[in-house]
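Cross-check.
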Amino acid sequence: MQTLYILVGRCLFPRQQDWEQRKNAKIFVFTIAFALTLGLALALVIRMIYSRER
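Predicted model, tokenized:
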């Protein structure tokens, strides 16, 4: 996981210090993961609602 944070940090935040890159990369990765999980959950709920009506 640390390698992912280092890679994302260097790509997205190149002008920051190393520790700031890792911190911001962790926040970015967790935000994206949370958004994808929430979006998938909402899609499944919507799919269940529409499949019951038919």
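The radius of gyration is 17 Å. The first helix runs from residue 2 to 12. Passed to J.P. for a second look.
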